[in-house]
Amino acid sequence: MATKKKYDFFISYRRANNGTVCGSFLVGLLNGYNVFYDVDSITEGKFDEQIRKALENTERFILVVTEGAFDRPEVPGKRDWYYEEIGLAIETVGLDRITPVIFSGTFNEDILPPSLKGRGLRSCQTVKYVAEYAKYFKDEFYNHFGLNNPSSSKNVDSPTREQVEDDDYDNEEYDDEDYYEEYEYDDIEELKQEAAKGNHAAQNTLGDCYFDGEDVRKNYKEAVRWYRASAEQGNSCAQYSLGYCYYMGNGVKVDNDEAFRWFKESAEQEHSTAQCYVGHCYYNGFGVKKSLKEAVKWYRLSAEQDDPEGLNALGNCYYEGDGVEQDYKEAAKLYKKAADQEDAIGQFNLGTCYYYGDGVKENTKKAYELISASAEQEYDEAIKFLEENEF
């Protein structure tokens, strides 16, 4: 006997272009049915695994089509979950159970990305929403799926014409130039609302709030939840933070493979601190085969962006001769760049160079000033050094 599938519907939508408004409208219409509403239905586990599992256990796949939803180009090596979910649905749910619901724009072969062209989507029967005739849409929607109990639907407001056609606000919010900027908010409830709507920047910032205990009670599990939601949309800051949680075991079990995966995705978008942590993974063999040469490569990329962690890490490699020829002068130069940013570790490292005369002329006065500055920032190594050494 075949196993009954768990979900009646899986709804996939593009969070920009007002897809959230339209997707939520459909969720309301399907009240009483078991609906998997994309990332909003995920509470734990790996995002990609949960998405695939849900699709493998779904009867019908609804694709929310809004104006510009297919305008985003596919980028080699970068996952676009809207496109990827459609491809997975073709494989798991089947073309005959995929329904594009067109809220605005068109749906044809020409607008599809290369990975989806020629895969039979043109044969899918669509349902068209027209705001001016919204009162008739419900009947058409239920008739299309052969549903017998429309009375269970919630009394949800139909999207307006402006909501399905005017995507200026969403496009500004998701503009590539400020895609990774921190979301500025005045009220934590406002931030939570924006995060719940799928705003990747708000999700990342809300994750930071839970991680640091700012405006909310500190909760690493909640931080991980919101970092993941943002990271899956390609936000490099959230990808780094999610990797860090796996690296340190904050809110999740330590998982070096997952840490490396997220650090790498962020680093490939030139997030400087993530580049440094990719270097750490290679240096220690965490989640990847140990390679000092690769570690130096990633440390250098981070240092070239003047990231203090990258500068110190690359400086340490030159100081110890790890992956490069030992060079105290080069190490001291790198430490100085970090110290000039008032980085406590950089101050300590450069201070010890002056104390021992490594790469610079010995100068205990400068050493004391730098190490004291580091200690004032409560860097333990600096405090210990001051206690154990004479100046």
Q: Could you estimate the helical fraction of the residues in percent? A: 40-55%
Q: What structural category do the secondary elements indicate?
A: mainly alpha
Proportion of β residues?
A: 5-15%
Number of strands: 5
- Backbone shape: elongated
CATH topology of the domain at 7-165: Rossmann fold
Low-confidence stretches: 167-181
Terminus-to-terminus distance: 81 Å
CATH superfamily (homologous) name of the domain at 7-165: Toll/interleukin-1 receptor homology (TIR) domain
Order of helices and strands: EHEHEHEEHHHHHHHHHHHHHHH
Contiguous helical run count:
18
Estimated radius of gyration: 26 Å
Given this structure, which CATH class of the domain at 7-165 is correct? Alpha Beta
Which sequence of strands runs across the widest sheet? Answer: 2-1-3-4-5
- Which whole number gives the mean pLDDT? 87
Largest beta-sheet details: 5 strands, parallel
Give the name of the CATH architecture of the domain at 7-165: 3-Layer(aba) Sandwich
In short:
The protein is mostly helical and 391 residues long.
Tell me about this structure.
The protein is mainly alpha-helical and 391 residues long. 52% of the residues lie in helices and 6% in strands.
